[in-house]
């Protein structure tokens, strides 16, 4: 049998419910609230909060989108009556903070809100396991503490008191950790509000007795339901001896760092994948960076995607490479030629873990070399294209260049003559006008011209021009047989 509830039934349930019930319009304006809601929020009458809007409070407004999407939201938040404003339900200025559990549902007429005071359950202490954790806390060799965000020590263990030079925990609790290093504590609190927990935080602290200590700390933020940082839980240990040894080592390394930084060679250390781990200013300059920090964000693989993997492969076998040359691209796209000595750094398993290198910019010399090669190539092409004979000899009478026509005249490949001695290769030229004139040009450094028959006795005649050069002499000769024949025939006709 179904029981039909009347308006009076609903009104009775509404008024007598121990849970606070509030009705809001679709715009968020308060329409009605039961006595429990007024009591929980500290409001004397509905009239006092009639103008309040559900979404004026930030912790509700931030969840509005979720409410409209899901139709129901549930959360907990504190209400501080001393700091209450005109946009909340806590308009009665009670001198305390209570914790409220909210259930907000979207209904056809607007919003149904149920609130419940859960302050009592929030304040209950987990007493059953307290003794066990207290023993761990006190026996821990790490200095454990709990402090306010202002640095006031709330609790600590004996190890913490000993680290900071206190005779016991009672005296330590009377201190403020902010006094050990004020700027460090302020920065730590700022970071905790963002990161929630911080590991391996290192800093120098000054104990109350004036002794400087270096501590390493892991700290965790304790937040309330409004995500406000209220306490700091930390674990510290005295790292002074290790830090002092580290700084002594650092001092001895400074002189080597100075040599490293002032070296005109580009020095670097990189991973096998090309990530720059360390470099000096010369390296940064060679690759077009303003400073070393910019170079450390770069990957040397970008300078030549094919060259670096090849070099790493060689290093795994050879362990070091000297005088390695390659064309690379700087960070700004400029093409440079570098010469490098690289050494592999290997672990105990003989695996390459780092590459140490020393590079210098060889672009200017390489460009000059290539320009010379191109110039010689152009001259070679020009000389090979002419239809007359041309050779070049150095001061030792060795062939340094033979063009195509000259090679055909000698009946050999041009490359077969390069480096050979003229008089040894062609002894038939010795004690001829050719030898006489060639030597005169070499000795006097003056241009010589003459005509001579072929050294092969074929009846051909050639017109020779011999020029001095920076390396020796150059000899150019062309066939004048037809001209000689015409001249002879002309002379014969004159006689007749």
Automatic annotation (TrEMBL):
EC number: 2.7.13.3
Name of the protein in question: histidine kinase
Keyword Transferase found: yes
Organism: Methanobacterium veterum
Assigned keywords, A-Z: Kinase, Phosphoprotein, Transferase
Record has Phosphoprotein as a keyword: yes
SUPFAM superfamilies with a match to the protein in the record: PYP-like sensor domain (PAS domain)
Record's catalysed reaction(s): ATP + protein L-histidine = ADP + protein N-phospho-L-histidine
Gene Ontology MF: a single term: protein histidine kinase activity
Entry-linked InterPro entries: PAS, PAS-assoc_C, PAS-like_dom_sf, PAS_4, Sensor_kinase/Photoreceptor
